[in-house]
Amino acid sequence: MAGGSGDMTLAFELRALRKLADPSAVFSDAREWSRYVGVVSEEPTYVVTNYTREQQIRQDFFSGPRGVEESLRSVKDQFDTARYVFVGTNDTDETIAEATEWEYLPIEEAAEAANWTLADDEADWLTDDEDVREDWP
């Protein structure tokens, strides 16, 4: 992905971002060749906000209270670029990308193309279940 079009919007599904060894460095790298970079997720807003804050990631957009599909549609309406690329982790992400007319790229392929390092194993990144707080209203 390095050296790609600067006229691109790049969205990471939160699970995909968590599979990376250094998400902050990935965002910095992606900004070199993307106009807009952000995070989308079905997770509550506070989960995405807390994660990106902890990782020191400045995102141009995020899901907010919307789901991934609605978020991708909204981002496409708000950010005018030649390409829209959605980096995800599974068949559901690919289906959402197709439904919203975004290009889909599995995180493993994105990491290989951009020379990003994946976390060594799943112990290096939080699963969706680990960041759900039972005491959250």
Spell out the blueprint of helices and strands.
Elements: E1 8-13, H1 14-18, H2 23-31, E2 36-40, H3 45-54, E3 61-62, H4 68-78, E4 83-88, H5 91-100, E5 103-106, H6 107-114
Parallel strand pairs: 1-2, 1-4, 2-3, 4-5
Helix pairs in contact: 4-5
Structure report:
With 137 residues, the protein is an alpha/beta fold. It has a single domain, classed as HAD superfamily/HAD-like (Rossmann fold, 3-Layer(aba) Sandwich), CATH 3.40.50.1000. 39% of the residues lie in helices and 17% in strands. It has 6 helices and 5 strands, in the order βααβαβαβαβα. β2, α3 and β3 form a beta-alpha-beta unit.
Q: Give the spatial strand order of the biggest sheet.
A: 3-2-1-4-5
Q: What's the structural domain tally?
A: 1
In which range does the helix fraction lie? 25-40%
Largest sheet: 5 strands, parallel
State the gist of this model.
This protein has 137 residues and is α/β, with parallel strands linked by helices.
